[in-house]
Design brief:
This protein is mainly α. It contains 9 helices and no strands. Helix 4 packs antiparallel against helix 5 (125-147). The chain is globular, with a radius of gyration of 18 Å. It starts with 12 loop residues before the first helix and ends in a 13-residue tail after the last helix.
Length: 249
Amino acid sequence: MAARRRNFDADALPYAAGAIGLAVLTFLHRDFALQWQPVPAGIPNRETLVLASGALLALGGVLALLPRTGFLRLLLPAQYLLWAVALHIPLVLARPGVATLLGFAEILALATGGAALFLGDRPGGAQTLLRILFGLCPILFGIGHFAYPGFTAPLMPDWLPRPLYWTWFTGVAHIAAGLAIISGSAARLAATLLAVMCGAFVVLVHAPRVLAAPSNRLEWTMLLIALSIAGAAWLARGLTGRARPFNAR
């Protein structure tokens, strides 16, 4: 008997919720997503583009939750890919370094991880390419922990002892996960653990900071980006060779 197709994809919920949350911030502040969406200040019709971007984020988030929408599920990762290519690559070329590469990697992770919504475990070169591209992202995240410990360590919860130790530890964990995903060795486990670690950042690091400053737009944006990355890592498990059957998506 053929498997019954689902009308709602719970696996995509963190990824979709992050995008819908970013859309809400876009509408509330009438602006793009800060340094994660670095649209030049003088761009023509900026306010119209802001509203269009927010609407596409919201629509893409909703479509990500609906398995029966086919190619339309690529709307959200395609939007993130546009951010990465059109907005972040010029910054990397203009100011090459860890900081600009980190911004690029965060958005590339959202694009490549989200593409698993459509591609999933279908074999072929596209799956391998996406898996490798996604795997490069946590490696850059880990390098960022070592390059900027003065930024990362203070983000750790006050009750956590030796925050610098946890900065190094999570940096190594990011790099190890990325290498495993790229190599294909224990790649699904690595993507799962990466998603869990990023989800822990949302709960333990970003949520308390939002509660302490609920009107701070930057804190909300950081939380939603972290949630989106955790969701992308969870979806990237489908690029590692074993995932949900196609008729369940």
